[in-house]
Amino acid sequence: MLYSPREDSYLLARWVRKLAFGKVLDMGSGSGIQAEAALASEKVMSVLAADIDPEAVALLTSKGIAAMQSDLFSKVQGKFDTIIFNPPYLPEGPGYKDIALDGGKKGHEVLGTFLAQLNAHLKPDGITLIIFSSFTGKEKIDALIAHYGPSTSASRICMCMPSARPRSRSCWRRKALLASSCWRKVIVA
After folding, report:
1. Per-residue confidence at 172, pLDDT binned at 50, 70, 90?
2. How far apart are CA 151 and CA 165, in angstroms?
């Protein structure tokens, strides 16, 4: 089942239009909103969309977006300047599994697997744009970033966490945490 873009998707797309550059991978592309946002940027040379769902891949291809079926990075080759991921980030609900929404038993397992494989596909000066829910647990995400974060000091992971209060976004560099709570403004270190 395809995830229809919602507030989180539009929030991430705004940052994709501002920050994406070079060769872009849109992981878990779904409807293609992030791939389309990247394609709209003059700083972007190419976009590849990847999704586990064959229905999503068919939709992306019908929109003229280069797309492939892949379970996270399982079939992805090469390195990218920008990697975007709007992961399924909610804890699994009882009795119903939705790959577009469920990020694992606690909500962070899919993101953890993604982060564990990220360095093999991110160029040394690359950027990763991710969004997650407060239900996922920011402390757990911080720990995953500390453990699997970018392998070079030039690489960045920028994360958006939508909330009812002013939106929060934190950028991590290897061995240094640079955080800012923002409302309609971003500081990228």
Report:
1. very low
2. 32
